[in-house]
Amino acid sequence: MAQLATSGRVLEGWNPEDEKHWDSKIAWRTLAVTTYSLLIAFCVWYLVSAVAPKLNEVGFTLTKPQLYWLVAIPGLSGGLIRLVYMFLPPVLGTRKLVGITSLLLVVPMLGWFSAVGNPKTPYWWLLVLAALTGIGGGCFSGYMPSTGYFFPKRLAGTALGLQAGLGNFGVSLIQFLGPWVMGFGLFGLQMVGTQHARSGHVLNVYNAAIVLVPWTVLASILAFWLLKDVPIKANFRQQIDIFGNRNTWVLTAVYIMTFGAFSGFAAQLALIINNTFGKDSPFATGGHYATSTLPLGGTFAFLAPLIGSLVRAMWGPLCDRFGGAIWTFVGGVGMVISAAVAAVYLSPRSPHDFWPFLFAMLVMFFFTGIANAGTFKQMPMILPPRQAGGVIGWTAAIASFGPFFVGVSLTAVTPKSFFIGATVYFAICTVLVWVNYARPRAPYPG
Fold it and tell me: Can you give the pTM of this predicted structure?
């Protein structure tokens, strides 16, 4: 193999499994810049989930199904865009992939900034803007495989766990930051026609869309300045060989359970809470809460993805030490139990059934973090490097339809019925993990 050359934009002779042909500083720098961009990307992907619960408070007149659909559309577009991004790392390289994507994230931010300031904005245009935020979710299937090229297998769990976990943190960041910045003027902005909430307070909803634009531009600058490419090239035909590997399909089903649940429930949780326990629930009277302690969904919804994200980031080193399969199995068992408990409280007898429901959801998100970290450790251990990157991209693409599937399902069945179905699916996937990967003498330990 040629000597390692790091001076150009392409890292010639790069091989993470050989210390003489690997530079840890470049690897960790790549992880830092890419994760920073990914965090903002997830903020953009979940921007609609932060804005939608507030729209009717500022003059829009959207129905419950319209709101569920609005929050579901980013999941649909994000999944479709991921199917494109999974092929881009060996085509564009890490530098262009991250730099160009960071600039593209500005487009949906500016679109929502303009739209929410005018309650007469047509619903079809809101759907279009929701679809554009899918760029933020789609890039995950390009970022993660490209980052995987930079690290040896012994550090794959830590690196991918940190990137995915801190990137997923963008979900809770926008759900917390968005409602907070709506309460005051930002960057000296005061748009004409700012609507007032029913309480009489000004609610600057457009702030949630504009607050991260400067940081997104910075992400693009850092990418073009600091990142390099590895010499891994593959055309479309070469990359689709992953579909002949049985593990691709099993891991896809499992990642739908882990990240599909994380992304889907994170997007819809605020609306589920509002519609089941909040001002739009059967307990509400005269437009007010039945009790003074009854919370809005937006008050607590950000906690769930925050827990899942932090656990995913923290569990990477444990996956490197003990293997990913056992942790994926543990996460699956926890998700089955907690989802079943949450389903019980979705036929509430009083508003205060909210609290055990919330606790069950927080526990479920804790276990999604463990299972997500475990699954991503398994992929580079079970599969060769190029296929591992492809499978990471593919599974991430399919699982990112989670917000769409959950949103559409909630327009068709009751939340309790959906949770029961989800519990059954989680149980099936957990059995698959045990049989194929986690049990003693499993055929594909990892």
Answer: 0.75
